[in-house]
Design goal:
246 residues, 8-stranded parallel barrel, globular
């Protein structure tokens, strides 16, 4: 089965937040994305609310529950107590933990699984006890997959930023793709499922899918939102689903 597509709506929220107006509607465009075939929605509610606001979270939860019960809600973020309480209140199907500093513009590195095990293990245990699937943001590093498994997480999410940054250099892109593939193979061998996200677009998705055929999910926001300005949200979802192999 091809990787499922989760639409990250942070870029939509960022555009809305430029004005004190209710458009573009995060839930409205989320509805269009899900109706067009997307498998879920992703949010990353940062402490400063510069993208998704905390008030968006219950609205997205309600959208999925009321209109798209087969879709999944993925909330990602740094595991502060405030974040964990937000997750526990709104019950996403998946929680993706990222090692972001609050001041970062966007996620740009994965966890040091061994070095941060004392932080990750109790958080993962808490989330698993609450019934959540837990995914951990990961660099392309096969050697780190034993420590990733030992946290108790269900999945890793491969940070594909370095691969996406090679849009004008096919040789370098092939090298980055191989690193991702080797990491995915190591993770799968450890019993971890594999997601991927960051700077994925229609042009680079097919090679990723071909090289990592057991990829479970891709979470895509910036490139997909940019595409939607040209093709509309529904048309863009169909383009991305096709690129994923659906």
């Amino acid at each position: 089965m091809p990787a499922k597509l989760s639409v990250n709506v942070n870029a939509i929220a960022m555009l809305r937040n430029r004005r004190d107006l209710p458009w573009p509607s995060v839930t409205g465009l989320g509805r269009i994305a899900l109706a067009a075939g997307a498998h879920g929605l992703t949010v990353h509610p940062r402490p400063d609310q510069r993208h998704v606001r905390f008030t968006d979270v219950p609205e997205i939860r309600a959208l999925i529950d009321d209109e798209f019960p087969k879709a999944e809600f993925n909330i990602e973020g740094y595991p502060s107590e405030d974040f964990l309480e937000l997750v526990e209140k709104h019950q996403p199907e998946q929680v993706t933990l990222v090692p972001d500093d609050p001041s970062q513009a966007t996620s740009d590195h994965g966890w040091d699984f061994a070095g941060q095990a004392s932080l990750l293990k109790p958080v993962v245990a808490r989330l698993k006890k609450g019934g959540f699937r837990v995914s951990l943001f990961s660099d392309a590093d096969p050697a780190g997959m034993t420590a990733a498994r030992d946290t108790g997480a269900d999945r890793i999410e491969l940070f594909t930023g370095p691969y996406g940054a090679c849009f004008d250099d096919s040789v370098k892109a092939a090298k980055e793709l191989e690193k991702l593939a080797k990491t995915a193979e190591a993770a799968l061998a450890m019993g971890l499922a594999v997601n991927a996200g960051h700077d994925l677009v229609v042009d680079n998705l097919p090679l990723l899918m071909k090289r990592i055929p057991k990829l479970a999910e891709v979470s895509i926001g910036h490139g997909l939102t940019a595409d939607a300005l040209e093709h509309g949200m529904a048309g863009t979802i169909k383009r991305y689903l096709k690129a994923c192999g659906w």
